[in-house]
Every structure is written in C-alpha cells, then in structure tokens.
What we know:
Elements: E1 2-7, E2 12-20, E3 25-34, H1 41-59, E4 63-67, H2 75-93, E5 98-102, H3 104-111, H4 119-130, H5 138-153, E6 165-166
Parallel strand pairs: 1-4, 4-5
Antiparallel strand pairs: 1-2, 2-3, 5-6
Helix pairs in contact: 1-2, 3-5, 4-5
Amino acid sequence: MRILSIDPAIRNTGYAIVEGDARTQKALDYGTLNIPAKLCQSRALAAISSTLGNLIKKWEPDEVAVEGIIYVQSHRTAITMGAARGAALIAAASHGLRVFEYAPTKVKQAVVGKGGADKQQVAFMVRALLGLAETPDADAADALAIALAHLFSSDPNSQKAIPRKEV
C-alpha cells in the first residue's frame, strides 16, 4: 500500500509518501511545503492544494492519512490550521482518494510508544524505523509518523495499531 500522509499547517505543511504494510515500510519521498509569510492566506491554501495534487499525480497513493484537529488556545490559529487541513482534504478528495485521520497523541503512541512524546523523539523514531540517513525536519517527521501509524493500523493484529477514522 502506498500512503500520502500530511501534517497540515498554513506555512509549513509536512508530507510523506510511504509504501509498505504493518511489518515493512519504506519512505519514497518526504519534506515540508514552506509557504512564504508574504503570501496571503488564500494563495497559501491554493499552493498547498496544488502541491499536494501534484504529489498525488506523481506518486499515485492508494490512501491519504492526515493529522486530526489538535487543541489550540487561539481561535485564529485553529481557524488557520483548519483551513490548511481543508486544502489538503480537497486535494485528496478531488483525486478520489480515501482519507483517514489520526489524533497526534495516537500517532505518537504508535510510533514512539507514548502519546506525550516530543517532536525530537518522534523524529528519532521515524528515522530509526524507516532507516533514514538523516533525521527529517519536524514537519516532515510528523508526516512520516502519520504514515507509519496508518500502515500499522492496516493490520488489526499489530500491537501498534490505532483506531482508523475515515473523514
């Protein structure tokens, strides 16, 4: 199975293309879409959707996994993050892909073993599990972790499986 996973944010959206199953996984591509602050929000959202659409065309994933909504104290931040998530969901849906969401704590639980893991622990474990030569930046590492959590959940007998929720 080939997965596109997304850690949505208006300025730094992490993405990953990972192939495999609950037992073996391989990272094919990953990175962060860095959107300049000078670009207005509507253009930033269009850039996110367009870039993810291009990744879908290039890699032809079977499914998409995205980070679920997180609690934030600022309404403005929540709205902005929701808009970025919406751009990602539209890119996936317009290509006919099923989309699954995972809570950040559940992703950390599946990949690190504890839901309160920090970003450095997630990046370290992602690097180790995927045999990467370098530690990815935080946003790309989060996207890789989301992909791993999704693949672990494809086998309900896996000890690392977490509940799947299609959106």
